[in-house]
Design brief:
The chain is of the alpha+beta class. Helices cover 48% and strands 20% of the residues. The chain is built from eight helices and eleven strands. An eight-stranded mixed β-sheet has the order 2-3-1-5-4-9-10-11. Strands 6-7-8 form a three-stranded antiparallel β-sheet, covered by helices on one side. Helix 1 packs antiparallel against helix 2 and helix 2 packs antiparallel against helix 3. The longest helix has 40 residues. It is flat, with a radius of gyration of 26 Å. The termini are close together.
């Protein structure tokens, strides 16, 4: 288990006290005060965890001395308290190690959720709709806001492709492990013989980029305006409002036609393009830092099969962590805390193990 040195704990607490003193002077320039306040806010919970470890370690030393030097009755009491202290100290050490793990700068961001039907025809499109509903329900439980960016419906009532923005506290931190291939096994409504079919949909979760994150130069962008084409009973625009953006250096293309306004379509297309470019840069940096290390939880590779939803058995299996839950109806209604919590815990355990190795 990772054990943080006393010297490191002292450094953390000293830096917290230094930042607190700097803010108390009242003579920092406004921009410097903002930077110091932000660092203090990030460091304070780490320092609190470090302080708890230091306190428990000091208490353990005192109790250990009592077990050697006090009378028999006090030794027995001290030994019992020492056992409780050891358990509390192990938990405190773990909390401090977690607090010191490098944080993904994108964890607190909103996310772009992209779901695309894969193999399985109409059934895959219906499953894509089920996944959108599942994530929407989960977002509602978290107090997040979901905004549909674009959608291409299938004739059977599902989706060929759907893109949504999910905004709220810690969205990307909880949804980032959802990227990959989701597989469903069930009897389609159109199947008269009762045979189980296997279909799939691909999910991609990208941290949303802000304008300051990505510079898109006008000369790198080709903008095409054309008349939107209605499908599946949707309205057909009678004005040239659909927008296709092509980012020339990367070849990325974004088409947006769901809004009646050309201006709104362009804004939403830019939002999607900016997020995809931001993700490309994140992937490049991550590859350079880690040598393209792929964890057990998953690399976010969209071709990786990550989960199976088996309707006949009422189960959901996450293949990355070998977790099976027999709560399929509840999970599809957005009760995903146990599933997502297990993925987050596995990721934390892997990163802690990497620190020890």
């Amino acid at each position: 288990m990772t054990r943080i040195s006393p010297e490191r704990i002292a450094q953390i607490e000293a830096r917290r006290d230094e930042l607190s003193a700097m803010m108390a002077t009242g003579d920092l320039p406004s921009d410097r005060f903002v930077a110091v306040s932000k660092e203090y806010a990030e460091l304070e919970p780490v320092a609190a965890a470090a302080g708890e470890v230091r306190r428990l370690r000091a208490e353990a030393v005192s109790l250990a001395a009592m077990t050697r030097e006090a009378d028999a009755e006090l030794r027995a009491m001290a030994a019992e308290e020492l056992r409780a202290n050891e358990a509390a100290l192990a938990q405190a050490d773990h909390r401090l190690a977690l607090a010191l793990l490098p944080r993904d700068a994108a964890d607190e961001r909103a996310a772009m959720l992209e779901i695309r039907a894969g193999t399985g025809g109409d059934e895959a499109g219906l499953f894509a709709g089920d996944l959108l509903r599942m994530y929407t329900r989960y977002a509602e439980r978290q107090g997040w806001k979901v905004e549909l960016i674009s959608a291409s419906t299938s004739e059977a009532g599902g989706y060929k492709e759907v893109v949504a923005s999910v905004a709220g506290k810690g969205v990307f931190a909880k949804l980032k492990f959802e990227s990959g291939v989701h597989r469903v096994q069930r009897v389609p409504v159109t199947e008269s013989g009762g045979r189980i079919h296997t279909s799939a949909a691909t999910v991609a979760v990208l941290p949303e980029a802000e304008e300051v994150d990505v510079e898109i130069r006008n000369e790198d962008l080709r903008i095409d305006i054309y008349r939107a084409s209605g499908a599946g009973g949707q309205h057909v625009n009678t004005t040239d409002s659909a927008v296709r953006l092509t980012h020339i250096p990367t070849g990325l293309v974004v088409i947006q036609q769901d809004q009646r306004s050309q201006h709104k379509n362009r804004d939403k297309a830019m939002q999607v393009l900016r997020t995809r470019l931001y993700e490309l840069e994140r992937e490049r940096l991550a590859s350079e830092r880690s040598g393209a290390r792929k964890s057990m939880v998953g690399s976010g590779d969209r071709s990786e099969r990550i989960r199976t939803y088996n309707f006949p058995q009422g189960r959901v299996t996450d293949h990355r962590i070998n977790l099976t839950l027999h709560r399929l109806p509840e999970i599809l209604e957005g009760e995903m805390d146990e599933l997502i919590g297990a993925l987050v815990a596995e990721d934390e355990a892997e990163r802690l193990a990497a620190l020890d190795s």
